[in-house]
Specification:
Helix content: 10-25%
Number of strands: 4
Organism: Oceanobacter antarcticus
Oligomer: single chain
Strand content: 25-35%
Radius of gyration: 16 Å
Structural class: alpha+beta
Pfam family, one: SEC-C
Largest sheet: 4 strands, antiparallel
Protein name: YchJ family metal-binding protein
Distance between the termini: 26 Å
Length: 163
């Protein structure tokens, strides 16, 4: 991934700014999640969530662990090399003081099967940094029809793409 590549999180708003862009084009990685991956604090719980999704896409194990709250941080690896992430959709995002909740849906393929993860993640602001604390997750297998759009985002029908 280069800084000029479209950011995997799909954001059209910079994570360091508080204003919305009227341009709906996806930001490039260098102006979106890369600064957070390099140590810049996330401006919001949603920005941290997007940067964590991007880190899963890129396999940035150290960032994922660093952005996890120490109370709930796992000891072992959190990335699985057999998992490929294909899309993120933020369903809701809210903050109240030092806590935030972001509900999202992510599409991925693991061990040859298409799946979706729906999660409402809880975040805590600690030492001026948002941290992932925990979440309620629901994994479901996707069974796209032959004529459905391919979940990989190619724009092709499933039967002509990843089927």
């Amino acid at each position: 991934m280069t800084p000029d590549s479209p950011c995997p999180c799909g954001s059209s708003q910079g994570h360091g700014s508080s204003h919305r862009s009227f341009d709906s084009a996806v930001l490039d990685y260098g102006h979106c999640c890369q600064p957070l991956h390099l140590g810049q604090p996330a401006a919001s719980a949603e920005a941290l969530m997007r940067s964590r999704y991007c880190a899963y896409v890129l396999g940035l194990e150290a960032y994922l662990l660093e952005s996890w709250h120490p109370e709930t941080r796992p000891v072992g690896p959190v990335c699985d090399a057999s998992t490929r992430w294909y899309g993120l959709k933020i369903e809701s995002s809210e903050e109240q003081g030092e806590s935030g909740t972001v509900c999202f849906r992510a599409t991925f393929r693991a061990h040859g099967r298409w799946q979706t993860l729906h999660e409402c993640s809880h975040f805590v602001k600690q030492d001026d940094h948002w941290r992932y604390h925990d979440g309620e997750a629901d994994w479901q297998q996707l069974q796209p029809g032959r004529n459905d759009p391919c979940p990989c985002g190619s724009g092709e029908k499933f039967k002509k793409c990843c089927a």
